[in-house]
Amino acid sequence: MCLHRFPPANPAKSRAKSVSGMDAISWTTSALKKVEPGCVLKCFKKAGFFSTSEVVTDSTTEENENELADLVANLDSNFSVEEYVNIDDDLSIEEEKLPVSNFIHRDTTEALDPFRG
Q1: Is 49 among the domain residues?
Q2: By residue range, what is the domain housing residue 88?
Q3: Rounded distance, CA 117 to CA 95, Å?
Q4: 77 Cβ partners below 8 Å, 6+ apart?
Q5: What H or E segment, with its residue span, contains residue 39?
């Protein structure tokens, strides 16, 4: 009796072992190329997304600045709009480069010691 003609007990598992990362990328690319733009549009419409012509646009930058100027004018403040907008320009946002170990609890570090080389 020829047993090699019978499929393995778990064909998906044996197939998964033979699939490379490149195979997966190739299959995904191939599948994406087969998707038609109309299909994507129908899915977006069904999901409730608006088309670009139906999208409500935000106010222009000038309108936003005017609104901000009105808000600043109504505050008890000595700042101009420009000063308010640029208030954090001189703020240093770069952090000192600290080792990750500074943020890990000592017990955790000790627990990881056996796994270090």
Answers
A1: yes
A2: 21-103
A3: 30
A4: 84
A5: helix 37-47
